[in-house]
Predict the 3D structure of the following.
Amino acid sequence: MKPLISQHAFIGLILLFAHQPAGMVAADELQTLQNCRLVETSWADGDSFLIQDEEGNQYTIRLYGVDCLESHVNDTTDARRLRAQRRYFGISKYGGSTESSISAAQRLGKQASLAVKQELKNPFTVHSAFADARGDGKYKRFYGFVTTGNGDDLGEKLVRLGLARAFGVYRKTPDGKSREDYREWLKDIELQAAKRGVGIWAATDWDSLPAERRKDREDNAELELATRNQPLDPNFKININTAARDELMRLPGIGEVLANRIIERRPYKTIDSITKVDGLGPKTLQTLKPHLKLSD
């Protein structure tokens, strides 16, 4: 079981949330945790790991903007995500079979974890607004940026090493880059890593990559069509300010990309304001509205 947060930290977060305006789920401004240490666990991935601040509080941090290969597959959701990641990097047939490709992908995922361990061997800084970063809804995680002891952005470093893709939830960075600038910056770094053939990109089959990505888009479209045509229980409602990514994906027509966009635009003060998310217009809102709420 992945650890949550310490009792001391939990009490602090309750006090933090208690002072938020109605509809807010976390402080909008980034808070800085100095002199943090990495806490070794058996479950950590390159983009999600446990840290401890200088006061002894522990938090599970999920990096903004990057996505490392799944090194632990515990259920069909993890397996589906690993399949999408393998297709993105064009490694679905690496080693000549699906089984060898999965094994190689998990090894590369563990390599990302080892890289994080190396980068965070000295005290580092975490910047977080304590926005809920649950993926499957079971484990409490917070989105954050990590600045290493050498002054590097950890997410950027992982992409530069070819151990992560530029994908996920974005926001304004500690050094002032806008959400859009940070997204495009990481994409450019990813392009450089691909050109150098480092990390995961060393295993890419460039001839099959377009077909693999197309197949993933087709499968996602099929799943979204199936969920769109499957009526939800009229009593099913989720809080758009706190719902985990996978909970949002239960909504008709909401895939992982749109779920991430919904998360990065939080908090919402009204249900109708969800239309500020790219790809969610008034027509989609009318379909989703019966299943959305702003509080628990």
Observations:
- The domain at 7-203 is CATH 2.40.50.90 (OB fold (Dihydrolipoamide Acetyltransferase, E2P)).
- Residues 93 and 101 are 6 Å apart (CA to CA).
- The chain is about 40% helix and 15% strand.
- The radius of gyration is 19 Å.
